[in-house]
Every structure is written in structure tokens, then in C-alpha cells.
Design brief:
The protein has 269 residues and is an alpha/beta fold. The protein is built from eleven helices and eight strands. Pfam families: Abhydrolase_1.
Length: 269
């Protein structure tokens, strides 16, 4: 069961499971604790996992203050401090990976090992155009279902669309009672479109694993590789047959990769 944790001026909806070294999970656009279900279930025998709803998503309110990646990184840092966690492994996907980058840059002492899934240093022209298309689509789509069906074409593999996985995900989202407003989706996208960590990534000194989906048409492998090349000593791996969210489509493989990486980090430290 989750609960609201007070971090600064924000009540952040948080779920914690398991025992062991702390892991903080940071979701992407509109994603909530539920997006990490396979990790909360599959890694809780080895780690103390903390997942949360970003500001303006799910059960965490969107403050009146301007939305920025820096503010969301500070939210994550505030949550760890409110929980009394001195440092944690951190994993973020998509926009959550950009928050994770900013978290380790702004609060380096809080991060032990970093996993970035489907990431980028700065949006290239293609990714920026896609993000602005999603910003338009969320308002122009005739229904929430129509928006999700269109949006997910770029998020999940054809395999997941054809075997019914995407249909099940859509039904779960439609039934979820804590909807993100159209305006909050757009404010969230606006915060990331021009965000750029390119020149600061070499300041990251924690062990880092960068994962890309070989079939991801948004944060494509070259963008992910560009992040890995700028972080000293970072490891770069491609899941060749996967798209934007392999942690949901092939969770056993994804969990094994990040578990192996975090075990190596623990052995080194």
C-alpha cells in the first residue's frame, strides 16, 4: 500500500516494498507507481524499492509553481531525505531518466548506482518533433482511448500490440481513477523539450548503466549512446528486439540486467 510522503512543500504519493539496499524508481510522462509493477514484484526479494508519482501525475498534485526538470529532481531528492535514505540506486525511464540525470547532478551524494532506460542528453530534432506531436495529440484526440492507442504505437513493440499486451495496459489506464489533466501533461512535456544535460554529463561520477531499446523510435539507441559516452565509465547496452519500455515487456530480462549491475556496484563499494 502506498502513502503520501511530505517532501518540502509537496505530498508525494509513494510506495515502498521489499528489503535490502534502497532503489528509487522514477517514471516518465504521466506514469505512476503502477508502471513499475514488474520491478516492485520482481526485485523486492533483494532490494527496498521506492516508487512514486511525479508532481502532476497520479496521486501527487501539480503545484502552481513552474514545472521544471530541476524541480522534479529536487522532489526525488526530498523524498529520499524525508524517508531517511542516505543514498540509493536510482533507475529512471524516458523523461524519468532525465530527472534521474538531474538528480545525480544536483544531489550526487544521494545516488549509488544509476540506470538510465531510453534516455537522451538533449532532444534532437526528431525527438523534439515527436514530443510536440504528443503535446498536440493529448488535446486533439477524440478520446483518452484514442490518445493512448496512438501514443503507444511509439512506446511498445508490434509484438506487444499484436499479442494483447497493449490492450491490457490501456484498459488498466482507463480504469485508473487518478487521471492526469491535459494541461498537466502539456506542462510536463514543456519542461523536457529544451532541457539539455550534454555539457554536464561528464560530471556524473557514480557507476552508470545506460539501456536502449533497439526498436525504440523515440529515444533511439544513438541518443542513449550519446549519454553513455559522456558519463565517465558508463556501460551501454541495447536490447535489440525491444522498444521504449522493455522493463514492462521483458521484465525478467530487464530486472536481471539491472540486478547484475547493482550487485557489481555493491561489490566495488
Amino acid at each position: 500500500m502506498g502513502e503520501h510522503i511530505r517532501a518540502g512543500d509537496l505530498d508525494i504519493w509513494t510506495e515502498q516494498v521489499g528489503q535490502g539496499p534502497y532503489v528509487l524508481l522514477i517514471g516518465g510522462l504521466g506514469d505512476t507507481v503502477e508502471s513499475w509493477r514488474f520491478q516492485l514484484d520482481g526485485l523486492s526479494d533483494r532490494y527496498r524499492l521506492v516508487a512514486f508519482d511525479n508532481r502532476g501525475a497520479g496521486r501527487t498534485a501539480m503545484p502552481e509553481a513552474p514545472v521544471s526538470v530541476e524541480a522534479m529532481a529536487d522532489d526525488a531528492a526530498g523524498l529520499l531525505r524525508a524517508l531517511g535514505v542516505p543514498s540509493a540506486h536510482v533507475a529512471g525511464f524516458s523523461a524519468g531518466s532525465i530527472i534521474a540525470q538531474e538528480l545525480v547532478l544536483r544531489h550526487p551524494g544521494l545516488v549509488r548506482g544509476l540506470v538510465l532506460q531510453s534516455t537522451w542528453p538533449a532532444m534532437d530534432r526528431y525527438l523534439r518533433s515527436w514530443a510536440l506531436f504528443v503535446r498536440w495529440l493529448v488535446e486533439a484526440a477524440p478520446s483518452e482511448r484514442a490518445f493512448l492507442e496512438g501514443f503507444f504505437l511509439d512506446i511498445y513493440t508490434p509484438r506487444a500490440h499484436n499479442d494483447g499486451t497493449v490492450d491490457r495496459i490501456i484498459e488498466d489506464i482507463l480504469a485508473f481513477p487518478h487521471k492526469q489533466s491535459t494541461g498537466d501533461v502539456q506542462r510536463y512535456i514543456d519542461a523536457f523539450v529544451d532541457h539539455d544535460t550534454t555539457d554536464r554529463l561528464p560530471q556524473i561520477t557514480v557507476p552508470s548503466l545506460v539501456l536502449a531499446g533497439g526498436r525504440d523510435t523515440t529515444s533511439r539507441p544513438p541518443l542513449c549512446r550519446a549519454v553513455a559516452e559522456r558519463i565517465p565509465g558508463a556501460r551501454f547496452e541495447v536490447l535489440e528486439e525491444e522498444a521504449h519500455q522493455p522493463f514492462q515487456e521483458v521484465p525478467d530480462e530487464w530486472n536481471a540486467r539491472v540486478d547484475g549491475f547493482w550487485r557489481e556496484v555493491a561489490a566495488r563499494t
